[in-house]
């Protein structure tokens, strides 16, 4: 019995000891596991926060450093590993004995140790995330020199071009000048120099800016800063911007800065240009050799008239071989002679004669050219240019003339937005027999095309912008002022012109701002004024005097303000009852109730202004066809029923910063803000831009109209840089399930989209089959982010599924974070699929083994591939008949990084993209001798 008691006592003692240890280890284990779980949550919060910042920066088109992308990938993997540990190791914490779970002290100790180590690793990652003060940088613009109209390789220009190229390679030469009269081709020559130095890799960067008259320092600084990836937009002071630019330029080892069209001596230090490096040089163009001399040009090259034969060849290039016919040939010689053998004059006159084989038309052109009298204030060498431009102007229809003169109201070398021309034109009554804004857009775009064809307008960076050659603008300004009652003056000139009654009978006045000009006269005495433009400029927003419009209120139809201060709204603004277009872009605004008094408004543009709310009085604008609130960062309130009251609205653009959509479906009287359902009441709506932060905010039954012709709609995220692509129909959808597409009426819009970004989809396996079996025929840009369900972009193994060509016009494809993507293309693609694809980015696609077959890859211009764990080769499944040297003639940019399993750039197989694994020959070399 004593033995039993002793044993029992020992057992109890051991059990007590075990219990104490058990409790202590349980306490440690529980604490370590809870700590790990908390760290996982903190890391996920940090990752989501950083991911949001990255997406926002990507949306602005900025570069994301590799270390940030790397951290996001590592954080995702570590977080997933810790989560798996927490979910999968519960059974290791106990052992089974006779169907009873007994705590396993050994496992607890080990698990606690593992949890502590993981928590430390997670804490390191959390601290690393806190170190990312900046997650992006503005990319340096790749220098692409697009010659407007093409560079003509004239013999008289060849020697000059060769001499300039030699001078650029001379260590003793840092400043080079090109001079000649307007329209002779200085800018064209300078751009050809830029193209050749980029091609020859003489400089790593080329920055081009136009100086114009008077010089716009702010624009010049921005042009140069963008080329070197420097962000100075937040700096308002010219000296501060100059200082930042100068410091950055000192770090450039090789850059060519082209200063085009210098009229007077320019202080480069004031701009921020002070090149101290041997590899950095300046190329300047001017109409005056004296100006280049004052700018200390080391070498100066004159550009003279074309020879008679060169001028005739240029003319022939434009009008065609009809000049070889005897009856036309003599006329052609005379026309070219009247143009003074000046390239610009020849292009302007030859444009209307292109493909015209009517002899009397040619004779009439020559007669008109001879009869035109040049103004006496134009220097002799430019009179031929004036006469040629005047001839072309006189041959235009009335609408074309007015649009050209309207463009001349903008500053020299200013980028002119075609949308501005449309808004002004609608309010001003410029377009005849146009009933809708969509028709007005078509009309203005067709007019722009005609003026470009006649070389009277130049193309901008894309189709949304145009420019004027400075010589053509000079002529147009003269015509507008002397014959059209249209004047372009600076603020400093305005009061003097008004005192001399020069502007008394004006129909249109354009005010150009320059440094130091910030004071408008108290009253504008122009009773016939129909159009008033106040352009943005340097300095603070300009205040508008109280009585400014009292002498112009009766006829004013279009009013454009950029960066005006309207905190105190001028009473005279309330009385503009005939106003049809009002644009207050970038203006300082507080109380905008006055807008409700302007009952004839058709177009209201408040973009980028400081407006905080859209008031109830806007309901009174029963004729309003366009409302633009884009870029209004402070907009928090759109009064209920304001939007739905605007029954004639055709175009609606809501600020991307507005996120106060009313969620509850309640009576209007109980709502505090706008509801998405209000948009459904707009039966005339054809254009729409808005962001819905969350699809859940959509009222029950709400659907986007399938009748939209132009749209920029984002569900769950910002549109960002897509604004600048020129894409008119785009969707950015951060949703999880396809059913949400149907619920919101987005399926038909998606199939018609030109740009599509899908983020977070989990139930889409085959993108084309699941989303648009017809192959996305209109899509130009596709981005897929974080969609773990996607296995294929297009699966054509079963031809019954995909009888149509897929992505026939797609230009850009970006795939990011598709962890289960196995192939972009699976099976043999229909003919003409991906035929326009030029840019491809593949990032963090863990299961992808190659990118594209050779047939598609040969057409690509830019390829970026990174952080793909299973990527073995970039080009997969090259056919046997392609063996031998394989060229990639279109490839301009290739970036490969963090591809741990990649052993070969290109693999060989008998069948192209027919499925199965690729056959990798040898890990060395990466490209091999066959890749060119």
Beta-strand content bin: 15-25%
Q: What's the count of strands?
A: 37
Distance between the termini: 94 Å
Number of H- or I-type helical stretches: 26
Low-confidence stretches: 93-102, 143-149, 910-923
* Helix and strand composition category: alpha/beta
**Main beta-sheet annotation:** 17 strands, parallel
Keywords summarizing the entry:
single chain, 932 residues, alpha/beta, Rossmann fold, 17-stranded parallel sheet, 5-stranded parallel sheet, P-loop_NTPase, ATP binding, coiled coil, ADP binding, WH-like_DNA-bd_sf
Detailed description of the structure:
- Among the domains are: 2-130; 155-302, P-loop containing nucleotide triphosphate hydrolases (Rossmann fold), CATH 3.40.50.300; 324-394; 396-474, Arc Repressor Mutant, subunit A; 760-932.
- The strands form eight sheets. The chain has a 17-stranded parallel β-sheet. Strands 4-5-6-3-7 form a five-stranded parallel β-sheet, with helices on both faces.
- With 932 residues, the protein is of the alpha/beta class.
- The model is unreliable at 93-102, 143-149 and 910-923 (pLDDT under 50).
- The protein has 26 helices and 37 strands.
- GO terms for molecular function: ADP binding; ATP binding.
- Residues 26-60 form a coiled coil.
- It holds the Pfam family LRR_RPS2.
- InterPro entries: AAA+_ATPase, Apaf_helical, At4g27190-like_LRR, LRR_dom_sf, NB-ARC, P-loop_NTPase, Plant_NBS-LRR, WH-like_DNA-bd_sf.
